[in-house]
Design a protein that fits this description.
By secondary structure, the chain is α+β, with helices and mostly antiparallel strands. The protein is built from 17 helices and 31 strands. InterPro entries: 6-hairpin_glycosidase_sf, 6hp_glycosidase-like_sf, GDE_N_bis, MGH1-like_GH.
Amino acid sequence: MKQNLAHVLAGNSFALSDAEGDMEVDPRVPTGLFSFDTRFLSHWVLTLDGERLHALSRDDLAYFETRFVVVPGAASHYVDADVSVIRHRSINEGLHERITVLNHSAEPAELIVRMEIASDFADTAEIRQPGPRQPVITAASDHRQLRICYRREQFSRETIVSSTAPVDVDQGGMTFRIRVDPDGEWHTDLYVEMVIHGAGGRDLRRSLAAHRQRARLDMRADLKQWFDQAPQLASNRRSLVRAYEQALADLAALRYLPLSYTERVPVGGLPWAMTLYGRDALITCLETLPFTPELTPATLRMLALVQGSQPDDLHDEEPGKILSELRYGEAAAFEEQPTAVYYGAADTTPLFVILLDEYERWSGDVDLVQELRHPTRSALDWIIEYGDPIGDGYLRYQPRNTVNGVANQVWRNSPDAVVDRHGHEPAFPRATSELQGYAYDAMVRGARLARQFWGDPAYAERLEARAAALRERFNRDFWLPQREYYAFALTPDGVPVDALTSNLGHLLWSGIVEPERAGALAGHLLGPELFSGWGVRTYAAGQRPYNPVGAHLGAVWPSDNAVVAAGLRRYGHHEEAARVAAGMFAVVETLGGSVPEVIAGYPRPVTKYPVQLPMAGRPQSWSSGALLMLLATMLGLSPCGEHLLADPMIPEGYGRIELLEVPGRWGRADAYGRDRSSVGGRSRKG
């Protein structure tokens, strides 16, 4: 995404503009005003006396609010401008823009202010080449309103722009003919309403907002409450505190209410993933349990609500399978893309079980465990039955939808991501290594839930036996003794895919690794082939497919590194975990602002600066969550019954770190640590 673009966002509604505040179609990025996978404004350009305006400054006040100061004329005479304009923009249920014109001269100014307005109602899936549409436009100057409506059978979307000031409205926009006194000002408020029509012409967004009081949500009060509920970070390293606060703000921004639901869940991130992705949401929740645990119950309930119930090739659905993606756009509605409810992910289902168990460990919320008993057992059944298509005991994936389904149904989901060290792709169904770790962990955790909460010790024993057999089989079949690491994947014939990848960290995180092998894995993860200095690469250098700017073939992902660091700490490799955390925090502190989705895998000594990939999103929920997970890993936070334990390993140069009021089953607890200290942490019941 272009770094000079400005955005405001609230949940899955966002506006992306240039530095002046104008929105124009760009095939490279989704500029415009979007909500629920539809672009409601494709053209929003302000002119003064027919002249485009140029930016003096921009002030990003909050994730949902920004202010542009713009002037007419070229850069050479900015300072001589007699008139300036302030565009104050905010977003909630709709877009609000207050336009203020300031006259700096000693004479009255008569001006023509024009807002050019259009909507192409493009689906986010077609931004690079929007299809032709013929919306119906109604201009009503007497009502100070412009309505643009698009309908295709029962699919209907409408943009309504209203002004508080008298205005001439035409089909291309709004024109204000104004007079501003010397040293005076003029303003108008423009409101953009985004309407999603359901059966009978009902506005789904407004109806649901009224039901859930969403339209009356005070964004500032909501953000304050969000911060008040989260732990406070105290450190003499101010850049660390700023990064923490930015991550919290981004997580607040990336919560939305699906049309069929009443609680907010995380979207993937700006700009391409502004909807519910099962994998992103589950990992975000796992990352943020010590900080924002309220995300988890809503996410688990939503995913249980749309859990797979039948075999369906188009949507890659199977009974018990957990959702991969939920979309509301036109392409999904008419099944031109299978994304209305799409299940093309093999990792979401075990992650669902893992999250429920981990949430109970932190929260003690037994009621949720009981409520989700059936969906959780269905998920475990899917792992054992549908997830093992050839009966060799390994969790595998193969797309049912061979036309436009996702080929690689793991977090490395780009088409070329699963290859051996020579670039050869394994046949389907593919058993990647991290899937086996997730499946093992899910069965171990499912056994605990069955024994402690569901009163089913026989089921628990069966799950434990399967988990033990999987662990034994995995450590036999995936281990490459001459290379001293686990294979990336296994072919249907049992042949190892010998690439060296960051999956080793996921295996440590899951607990499937034999303890005596953990040291070798730590050596690889922090070795020069995988560790760039900023973080662990997805794919090791020195292998033929390696590419430092390849998303899953050499780039560095904060979300991946958070899991790697947690895995290293699980097996006692504390120094190595601290190095990974320090590298990731250095990325955030160097770049400033939101945690990027991904950076290039160039060696740190070569670039001296983290190189962001052009199509990477920012902010992203699992990237912001990664920073929190890394912080928890540095402090060594873990629940132990009714207490919070802390076992800090703080990197050199970080001094003292205090995390205050960590929520959990103990009430609220504090944790602290000092760099290279082995002592720290206290908890209290509250």
